[in-house]
Write a structure and sequence with these properties.
heterotrimer; A alpha+beta; B alpha/beta; C alpha/beta; A: alpha+beta; 4-stranded antiparallel beta sheet; globular; C: alpha/beta; Elongation Factor Tu (Ef-tu), domain 3; Rossmann fold; 2 domains; 6-stranded antiparallel beta sheet; 6 helices
């Protein structure tokens, strides 16, 4: 839509104005790393962050959420929806792509109103990455180094001001209502273009092939010996799934009061890498080995999700690679598959 | 069905232990007073003087560390429909089992000096080495919420929840900075979750009080330790605290 | 189709009444479930429902009754294997449970009309197969031959014994049953289900086979069916997976790219032949 400018000196007021009407969350320092958290003061917001331990997904699909409350007598239940107005501030483009995919997942087929209601109440303010977060990210290979949709506003740091790309009418209204801003002059447009084009070479393609070829590569990689090799390495700790911005598998559990009269049904993040993920009631486990489970994970990212939703299931954020203590990385696995196939 | 449940009679027992798990139970009773409406506690030496012998659920803290413990534990097993191991000593043998790696006579002399002969002892073992155990609440000490969760499950006739995944799962859900990334050392990747990753959340590495997950990838865990500058000996030393019994069983 | 409406959330079950409970074996009970206001479940054979007991949890259960006999109720044949099924077994008539569904894709009965149908259920596989068998028998005229080859582990585990007897006595049903291990009471066939196939000769082009059973059974039964020349897309199965959410989100039931709770649980062999995790 349109391009606006906010002076950095006006940012603190922008955020504090937002706080009047929204819960604002954004990247904050956590030990030596960063995590999205509640922002109550502009100074807490670290727009210069590299990456966060968990993606902002947790505000749309929380680690644990109540689906409904119930009374055991008569089996009556009342769904619980979280519709508090919220602004997720400072979302990187990889995560914008990931949320875009999750939007499709939860709206496809039977709609998941728990996610969708929360999503409808959420505004996304993105921020452009001008340098790679670290050695693990591979956004450029996955086509997520920029985003043309999926945000309400999108910031680019121009030094003393932010360029603000308006993505939606809701974003436009937010800007008009809460931020001192002005239209972009010719020199500002020029500066933005310069920043955006200069950033490109700073990022490297880390896959040896185009990310869009992944579904085709996966299609010929089911029997690759690499899965057996991962059997020996993988700890089956689930970390890769749990930090992933596009993973959405969950478990469902009941919690009851001590008198067992009332309770709630909750869903919690699950992981297909955990040993019991595919076990059925009668005892059969349909993915017994770590090799099968790792293969499933990579096939979901590289083939099943793209086949189903038309978008790659991996956005190249590198979080799983950072979290994996035994260095199982998408770049490593996919380049190995590619090498095996082209050799 | 769910609403009209009986109020089961419950008893607490201890063997070789610090009684810290029972203390946690006492603590839970203060935060969950309604527990006292749901069950009838007939015996709990640490908290009350009455000693009822009619109970359906027995919570047993402590390891079995002398022959004379066995008869008492068997009597408990005969009486109780459900026996629950309460905490690491009952579940794993725990800290008491560290001595199993030394000659027993030396240990006895070290502890009791010239009165060594007065005391009966043998290698400490988990209660499951003596009787069938229906459920375990791991941990040193047990986790309050997990204890409450197990009681609720038993009241509902459900299999008590016991996570079979590692501590990493809970650590990630809590968005902790990985202990290894902070230069620390953690058994979390191979240790059973359920504690809410309390030690890593407070900045310490997991010490393994809840025991290994089923089918841990121990070779790969060793590789992790090497990668972070540690040795397998470091890990075994750490694992000795709660896993001596299991290590010796695996080695024998 | 009249699926039970959901109130705002696809995860909230509707209350339903346990109208009747009948013990079939030591492990299985048959529950007759009644929806409020005389609603019909509106299912196809092969579909399932998610059954809830608040506080205990939720479990997917295949529907065992025929749509042709819905009459405001449906039946679930439940084996006691876990928390939810265990608690269900403890229920008395008149109890309330929660139900979501019908879910998943069942058997395309319309495509089966005019065809010979060969049923080969094993063990608890008879529970979902019975839904289709009874529809076929209720609409007997619109199908060709009806063959039922049923295998159970032992005589005590045979399900729906009175119905088995009725099928045996019908002249328009070719019925064979076998047990893996016999006991003193048993005078019939002994051997795994595949030993029955030599007794039937089929017209492969006009035969639809429906086999439902434990995972280990499929490979062997498939060999028999393919060996008789029945085309792959005419061989139907129902796959068991951990259908936690039932709406294609939670990921537990995935069979490679397929969500068993959406595209399945009924699949024909042509659909899953190349799907490595399927059988």
């Amino acid at each position: 839509m349109s391009l606006r400018m906010i002076d950095k000196g006006s940012m603190a007021a922008f955020v504090s104005n937002l706080l009047q009407a929204y819960e604002v969350v954004g990247p904050r320092a956590k030990d030596s790393q960063y995590a999205f958290g509640r922002i109550t003061d502009y100074d807490q917001l670290r727009l210069d962050y590299n990456t966060t331990i968990l993606p902002p997904k947790k505000y749309l699909l929380p680690q644990e959420e109540v689906l409904f409350t119930f009374q055991t007598e008569g089996m009556s239940a009342a769904p619980v929806f979280d519709t508090r107005p919220r602004v997720i501030f400072g979302v990187h483009t990889c995560d914008i792509h990931a949320l875009h995919l999750l939007d499709a997942v939860f709206a496809t087929g039977q709609r998941d109103e728990h996610y969708l209601e929360r999503r409808a109440a959420t505004l996304i303010v993105g921020i452009e990455c001008l340098t790679p977060c670290d050695e693990h990210s591979f956004c450029k290979s996955m086509g997520t180094l920029s985003a043309s949709e999926g945000f309400d506003l999108h910031l680019t740091d121009l030094g003393d001001r932010y360029a603000v790309e308006v993505g939606t009418p809701a974003g436009e209204a937010l800007l008009a209502r809460y931020a001192a801003n002005h239209g972009a002059g010719e020199s500002e447009v020029g500066l933005l273009d310069k920043m955006l084009s200069e950033k490109w070479p700073r990022f490297s393609y880390r896959l040896d092939f185009d990310g869009n070829e992944l579904p085709a590569l996966m299609a010929v990689s089911y029997k690759n010996p690499i899965w057996k090799e991962l059997e020996g390495r993988c700890l089956a700790c689930g970390s890769c799934n749990l930090v992933c911005p596009t993973c959405y598998c969950f478990d469902v559990q009941d919690r009851v009061s001590m008198d067992r009269k009332t309770g709630e049904r909750i869903r919690v993040w699950d992981s297909c890498q955990l040993a019991e993920f595919a076990r059925v009631g009668s005892g059969e486990n349909f993915r017994k080995t770590r090799a099968e489970r790792q293969r499933h994970r990579f096939f979901r990212k590289g083939k099943y999700i793209p086949d189903m939703h038309g978008e790659l299931g991996c956005v190249g954020c590198g979080r799983c690679a950072r979290a994996c203590l035994v260095d199982i990385t998408p770049v490593g696995v996919w380049n190995a598959l590619h090498k095996a196939h082209t050799a | 069905m769910i609403g009209d449940l009986m109020k089961p009679k419950v008893a607490f027992f201890d063997f070789t232990s610090c009684e810290g798990c029972q203390l946690t139970v006492v603590d839970s009773l203060q935060t969950h007073v309604d527990l006292l409406d749901a069950v009838e506690i007939v015996q709990f030496r640490e908290a009350m003087t009455e000693k009822g012998e009619d109970y359906a659920i027995a919570f047993v803290e402590g390891s079995i560390s002398r022959a004379s413990d066995e008869a008492r534990l068997r009597r408990i097993r005969e009486q109780a429909a459900i026996v629950v191991a309460l905490g690491a000593c009952a579940h794993l043998g725990g800290i008491n089992a560290i001595r199993n790696a030394q000659p027993l006579d030396d240990v006895r002399k070290y502890v009791y000096g010239d009165k060594a002969d007065w005391y009966e002892t043998y290698p400490a073992r988990p209660i499951s080495a003596v009787v069938k155990v229906d459920a375990v609440i791991p941990g040193c000490p047990i986790d309050r919420d997990e204890f409450i969760g197990v009681v609720k499950a038993l009241l509902l006739g459900k299999k008590p929840p016991l996570p079979d995944y590692p501590v990493c799962v809970e650590c990630k859900r809590k968005e902790n900075v990985c202990v290894f990334h902070k230069g620390g050392f953690c058994l979390g990747p191979v240790i059973r979750a359920g504690c809410g990753a309390i030690c890593p959340t407070c900045g310490d590495g997991c010490e393994g009080c809840r025991g290994l997950i089923p089918n841990p990838n121990q070779d790969s865990m060793s590789d992790v330790l090497v990668k972070y500058g540690l040795t397998v000996a470091d890990m075994l030393a750490r694992w000795t605290m709660f896993g001596t019994y299991q290590q010796m069983e695996a080695g024998s | 189709m009249s699926p039970i409406p959901t109130v705002g959330s696809v995860y909230v079950p509707s209350p339903a009444r346990v109208a009747k409970v009948k013990a079939l074996t030591v492990m299985e009970k048959l529950f007759t479930i009644e929806l409020p206001w005389g609603q019909s479940l509106g299912h196809q054979p092969g579909q399932f429902v998610e059954v809830s007991l608040f506080g205990i949890g939720e479990a997917p259960i295949s529907i065992s009754s025929s749509p042709s006999r819905s009459n405001g109720v449906f039946e679930l044949c439940v084996r006691k294997v876990g928390d939810v099924t265990g608690a269900l077994h403890g229920l008395e008539e008149g109890a309330t449970i929660g139900v979501r569904g019908p879910m998943g894709t069942g058997f395309p009965v319309e495509k089966f009309r005019g065809k010979d149908i060969l049923f080969a259920p094993g063990g608890l596989g008879l529970a979902p197969a019975r839904s289709l068998i009874n529809q076929v028998l209720d609409e007997r005229g619109s199908f060709g031959r009806v063959m039922i080859l049923y295998g159970a582990r032992n005589p005590a585990e045979l399900l729906f014994k009175d119905e088995l007897e009725a099928w045996r006595q019908r002249s328009d049903v070719e019925f064979l049953v076998t047990v893996d291990r016999s006991d003193e009471s048993w005078t019939g066939n002994v051997g795994v289900i595949t030993t029955l196939f030599k007794h039937v000769v089929v017209n492969p082009r006009n035969t639809v086979a429906v086999t439902i059973g434990p995972p280990v059974m499929y490979r062997f039964v498939l060999m028999e069916l393919l060996g008789k020349g029945i085309p792959e897309r005419q061989i139907w199965m129902s796959l068991e997976r951990r259908m936690k959410c039932g709406v294609g989100k939670c990921g537990h039931c995935q069979i490679n790219n397929l969500y068993c709770c959406q595209q399945g649980p009924a699949f024909n062999y042509a659909q899953i032949k190349g799907v490595e995790e399927a059988i």
